[in-house]
Amino acid sequence: MLMMARETISENVSTTQAYYDGPASEIYRTIWGDNLHMGIPPYEGASLQEAMDNTNIIMAEAANLTPDDRVIDLGCGYGSTARYIASHYGCTVIGQTISNEELKLAQERAEKSDASHLLTFEWGDFHNIEYPDGSFDVVWSQEAFLHGADKNQILSECYRVLKPGGTFIFSDILVRRETSQADRERIYARLNTVDIWDHPDYEQAIKQHGFELLKAEDHSQYVAPTYGGVVSKVRENRSELVSAIGDETVDKTIAALDFWVESANAGKVGWGIFLAKKPS
After folding, report:
1. Which end of the chain is more exposed for a tag (fewer CB within 10 A), N or C?
2. CA gap 27, 237 in Å, rounded
3. Residue 6 predicted with pLDDT over 70
């Protein structure tokens, strides 16, 4: 668990924004599709999209959403999860991202949604959530905190903007504590991130920030299949991607994804879902 200086946050935000607004944007749109998170297959042989959609369903059911809930989705990507929550549960949802490319697509897709009146997408940094205390019934995030420079600051902000009795649910990539520094650097390099926590790090910090931890589920078995599916699709779509972002970037992406699959199979990279409550 690495503690970052506050002045590092602005640099981290700029780096992450540049990552998602750069060549990675083409890869995510072409390969990942509407969702940008891990998938839990609903049945054997399910597609990557079906698995990722199923993760949304599982997490939404765990959050026990109601039409009266006001939800903020931190690191909302293209807005797929926010649209699902709004259309299936009738919640009011605010999706935040630091990527201008993601924001543009999220807004465009929201306009075509039958729940457009319930959706707002905006630029936002989860280190500093610009809403008053107790603004939301549910704080939600998927595979976003791994980019954060100061995860304690993020958790503090999540607690602050959540109403008493509100629900905090998120999933995130994990890197095991015993992973060597050399392997960590290779894992981090793919996403230009500075630190990724392990399961016990989140469990401890969630409690320290005042939340009541209800569930801390380890779903690491789905990391290698998800990234294996992604790298297979990159290889299948190589010509299209090379035309858009060049040989070198595609080759680096394939090598980095292969290492993530290898690391997941070796038990170095995992994934967890966490559910907590802010005391009433």
Report:
1. C
2. 10
3. no
